[in-house]
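Action item from last meeting closed. Structure (187 res):
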């Protein structure tokens, strides 16, 4: 029963997504049958990295957070050390977190690690995979596990963060799919 309970954060996300999609389809001459429906359980990592970058740093590669997070994706030093060791076989100096391409690579690798951990516990998830990945990125994977693999129980600010990132993820994913379809059709 808990798994199917309406969750405030997801409900708000769905509402935001509906408004966003309505706006996109009414403001651009795109025939809806050309754009495949988005699967809410799918993660477009390029779009997700872009969305998190927008929300976390507004695209500023020199951004520094209150807790010392750095770069486009506002990565913490401990996360940077862990992810770079795993991804590159050695720890990359945290000073390099200001390099945009490297910051996005490390941020994406971290998102993929979070998703892989969550996938292993799929039967225990009480929210969509994308929502839980974003919430875990923002609040930490152990916090989301303590909440029973759900966004219910997050602070209003954390829920707003998840909603904003997911709305941008949907928008950027739609743009990518639309562009790909236009490219294939020779427009």
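Sequence:
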């Amino acid at each position: 029963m808990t798994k199917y309970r309406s969750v405030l954060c997801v409900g708000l996300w769905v509402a935001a997504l509906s408004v966003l999609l309505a706006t996109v389809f009414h403001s651009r001459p795109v025939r809806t049958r050309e754009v495949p429906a988005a699967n809410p359980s799918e993660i477009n990592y390029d779009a997700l990295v872009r969305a998190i970058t927008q929300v976390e740093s507004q695209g500023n590669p020199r951004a520094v957070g209150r807790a010392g997070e750095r770069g486009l994706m506002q990565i913490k030093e401990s996360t940077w050390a862990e992810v770079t060791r795993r991804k590159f076989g050695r720890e990359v100096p945290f000073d390099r977190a200001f390099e945009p391409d490297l910051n996005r690579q490390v941020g994406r690798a971290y998102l993929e690690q979070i998703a892989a951990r969550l996938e292993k516990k799929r039967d225990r998830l009480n929210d969509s995979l994308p929502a839980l990945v974003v919430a875990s990125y923002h609040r930490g994977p152990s916090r989301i596990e303590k909440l029973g693999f759900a966004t219910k129980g997050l602070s209003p600010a954390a829920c707003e963060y998840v909603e904003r990132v997911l709305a941008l993820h949907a928008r950027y994913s739609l743009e990518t799919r639309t562009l790909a379809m236009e490219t294939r059709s020779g427009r």
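Note appended to the action item: Residues 1-8, 10-38 have pLDDT under 50 and may be disordered.
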